[in-house]
Amino acid sequence: MADPEIYLAIDNCFASKRWTLPSDWTAIIKNLGIDCIEASADTECDPLYMDAGYLKDWVSDVKKACKKNGTRVVNLYSGHGSYSTLGLAHTDSRCRERMKNQWIKPLMKMASELDAGIGFFCHAFDSSVLGNPTLYKKYYDILCGDLAELAVYWKSISQKYAGIEQMYSPHQIPWTIKGSERFLSEIYKRAKTPLYLTIDTGHQSGQRNFLEQSDRHDYEIALPEDTDTYKWLEMLGGYSPIVHLQQTDGKHSSHFSFTPERNSTGIIHGNKVLSVLKKFYAKPENKNMPLRCDKLYLTLEPFFSTGTKDACILKSLEQSAAYWREVIPKDGMKLSDLV
Asked: Per the structure, how many domains does the chain have?
């Protein structure tokens, strides 16, 4: 697929602990001029925290709210809860199995019921593993096996995309461009079905701390290209059905909004994002990788501090949506028509 459809979406993480009812966050998002929503597990739908009966009702409430407000949940995504644990790379198999079967699979089932895609991140290597090449190889293999199993499970219940988020330090893979290619290729080889990537436009900030060093193993070393958001999009953008959008100075992953003030000093520019994605799609297919995506959801993912006033959040959201609607005036437009 050489010319994907482009959609503008927003993660409802901004609504966490504030506007948690589906009727509320769908209405706010519709008022921004955005129809496509990424629902975060942090906004009261995490299977590890929530009652099973409640989650069943939540899915029903989301469907009703989306119908009423003219929106749709296009993706369901993990939140901070799963990010704070070793998860699928835990040194204890009981914890890995719990994460896989009692968190990810229920989340996948919810996504399927919403006719949505799925994205998540829930693993990290302990330093005792990272510093030992033999152990690292062992747990890397376990992780690839579990993710391949999850890819197969997802295919059995949905035809939508599933992806794993790109991170920025060696204990949370995939974190380099070449490492991401190997990672996705290995999972695809095992599962015979794709597990894709989620590129975040601020997740290239940590790699500068791990550039060539003689005292590190090769899998702990980044290259200069790994610090470049646009190089990630150029090399891997078509394997990223969800692109998380945050404004950044390139040195921090603060998940800033796209306000005029932030845009004046930020390095993420909408037209350039689309231009480098077009470069990716101009390249031939890689037979060792999954098929390139025919739909890309460019998804705003703004974070706000607990002390931020509601009115300030809403203003930032409005300005961010307005900026990106200039870049993507209509959902579903072909990339070639936007660049």
From this structure: 1
